[in-house]
Amino acid sequence: MNKYVFSKFQIVVGLLISFAVLLSGCGNRQVGYDTGIEGPGDNNELVVYTSHKEEVYEPIIKEFEERTGIWVTVIAGGTNELLEQIALEGDSPVCDIMFGGGVENLEAYKDYFLPYTCSEGKDIAKDYLSADGCWTPFSSLPIVFVYNNKLIYESAEPTGWKDLLGDRWKGKIAFADPNTSGSSYTALATLLQILNQDQEKTLRTFVDALDGNVLSGSGDVIETVVNGTRLVGITLEETAMKQIAAGADITMVYPREGTSAVPDGCAIIKNARNEDNAKQFIEFIISKDVQQYIVDKFNRRSVRGDIKDSKEPFKNLNVIDFDISKASIIQNEVLKQWSALIANR
Amino acid sequence: MFKGIRTSFKSELLICFFVVSLLPLLICSAFMVRSFQIKLRKDYKEEATIKLKNMEENLTTIFNKIDTISAELSVNENIVKTLYVKDIQKKKSMYLELYNNTTEIREYADFSLYSIGGICKYTTNNAIAIGSELPTYWGILRAARKEPTKLQIQRVEKTTSTREGVLLQASRAITDSNGNCIGFIVIDMDTNDFAKLFQGTFSFNTNLMLVDSYWHSIYSTESASERSIVPTIRKCILDKKNFMAVKKDCRIYMRQIDNTGLSIVLEQGEAFTSSITRSMYGISILMAALCFLLCVAVSLTLSRNLAKPMHTLTKAMKEVESGDLNVQIEVERRDEIGHLAMHFNRMIKELQYYMIKQIRQQKELNNASIAMMQAQLNPHFLYNTLDTMKWVAKANHIPEIAVLSSSLAKILRNSISSEAFVTVKEEMEFVKCYIDIQQIRFADRFDYEVLLPEELEHYKIPKLIVQPIVENAIIHGLADRDSGNIRVDIACEDDTLFINVLDDGCGMAKEVMEHLNSRNRDNLEGHLGFYNVDTIIRLYYGHEYGLNASDIESGGTKVTITLPLRKEVFDA
Questions:
Q1: Confidence (pTM)
Q2: For chain A, how many structural domains are there in total?
Q3: The complex's ipTM?
Q4: Residue A221 sits in a domain of what CATH number?
Q5: What domain count does chain B have?
Q6: Closest residue of A to B255, CA-based?
Q7: Distance (Å) from the C-alpha of residue B463 to the closest C-alpha of chain A?
Q8: Percent of chain B whose pLDDT exceeds 90
Q9: Contact (CB<8Å) B137/A292
Q10: A251: Cβ–Cβ under 8 A, 6 or more apart, which residues?
Q11: In chain A, which ranges are continuous DSSP H helix?
């Protein structure tokens, strides 16, 4: 009896097992790796964090790949977001290089960067170079004014920072919130450094001139000027020139008192897995070809002295000696005062 | 595990039904799904391979043609000579040359000629403006200048393409007779060109993608709404992971196109998506569930069908156990269970009949014992009378009467005693009494002798088994003789007691002896004593014991009583 039960039990178990095998038999998937696809091979990769727009980084990355054979992985995001990510990753970084972001931002995170002096450093204007080589400048971005050609005669164009603070432009200035826009803060810091007066008073005067109107993003500046909502805008030369090239009926003005030309930069991450490739990338973006390309295609200013440029010569811009570290230090305070002033209106 | 199951007929049936219905169903459906899957997958794979191969051939042909044509153009004397000429006529002939040379491939690609400075001079595409510029320090023209003998192929990123929709550019340097680069041939392939090329190669579950050597997508037939899988595959390649599983329910095949650095990727939806497989298994399980319900229903009905009569039977049996023999089961069925019930009914009837018979017998027996008890009154009176006779005879000096009456009294007492077993000695004393009477009766015509070893005296035997034999010997053996000898010879061998009664009389007729030994009652008239003794012994001890009669050679008969040697009374 017992024996009979056991053999029946065995049969049932056997059937169940074969059934299970049948069902699980779906697991033997073939692998389609027989196509001879070659990966990048060892040490032939580079991970780039970039805060540039796609239209800027795409051609540069593509050309870098074509020229070096290095496979690049791009992770795009906002400057602060990426820098915070780098700080978070610390000693085991995911990325090898940070491409983009104002150098004042990079300066703030320089503990995470590997100092590197590029071989063509001598060709870069000295003003742009970082003191310790923690970052390498990429392009120079002067702050400019734009105005709507249809609404303002050339003879009545805004001339400079002081002019903007006058009653003439009250409430007619397009300016992005410096809390969200890095370039907007640079413009504010430039204003403060040029006027060189009591900080809060200057800010108050400026907020009065804006009549409290602040745009949410730097992208809106040109648009509100073009559609006539505002008469004058404060923006980057690059942005203004790009829109003019695209057919916007606006004119670009360099402020009479001078302007800042803070570069954006590029920095190698400490302990990067592909340090040599990151160095190659720095060499590449500072090379004549890339610098020429950004001048030709992106209306940017090269940081190199030996690049032909059809733009207003740099010496005519009356570029001030912008104190990056100071701008960095007072940033929180200024933004706080700014927010308070806006809120009180 | 089966202990619980085996106690109930219902669950046993249920299990059996499961095994015979559910298992084959499940196995069958699993086999079906699996074999479907395998077959379809194989077909799909074949289809994918063919498609991929066709596409690869197409692309290889096109790129080969582009390569050949551009190579011819790059050294074409007319072109080299007239690239920078401004004469309208010459320009026309230049275009003629360009168009003639590119006829077979112009459907898929546009050819343009650029100056050494990167200015477009001639083009077969209306959308490209003559005079438009390509940087010579950058991208495709730089590559072409660096390697003038080779056709350069590069992806065009959409953000900087010279005109809308250009996806791929190829370029080759135009060289003069000295091998110096004097301009460039640029070949553009745009979205429409690729759409034509890929037409008919993709279907609802198949997508084709063209990627460059760094695994950036160039062209894809994926619908714009879905996320392209190319970046995911690229990540897998970078992470050295298997990219077969980048998309659920998809298989990925790829092939490189020779000499171009390009690869073609085919993404094919799984023939059996996991949702289909799931639903098929779902149906199987549903069927199994239905089957289960059916099993339960059938086994319940069947077991009820079987268990109900069993229950009735059990109940009837219990009633019988408690003594009610009037139970009868109603038989409605003609199957085995019906038969069982019928047989049960018959058995109960038999039992009833038997019981009635038993009771009747018992009653008769009771009557007999009552009669016997009544009969015992007389022997006591007789015995007392005989005792009186003995003393009267002694007083009147008639010793024969005294012997006769005392022997008769002894015999009488012995007969009415309730003891069924006596010792051998007692039995022999009883026989002696009988002999005493007979000797007086037959006037000492025979001698009597007993041979009883002392050690056998106390063995127990049924009473009154030797006397009838001795009586037989006197009445039949010595009937017509003036003198004779009767000897009772008692012996034992192993566990068997032999009591031999020998006489030297006339012997027994052969026929009678046969009858005696065959124990046939019908032919034993006058020998009932013999028969009764034999029957008593057999009833007490079994068939190996009993009587046996034989002739003695010197004349006379020997009757042997065979008994087991027992000291204790055998309790019948």
A1: 0.65
A2: 2
A3: 0.78
A4: 3.40.190.10
A5: 4
A6: A35
A7: 55
A8: 10
A9: yes
A10: A146, A147, A149, A154, A157
A11: 2-24, 54-68, 79-89, 103-108, 161-165, 182-195, 199-210, 219-226, 237-245, 275-286, 288-298, 324-344
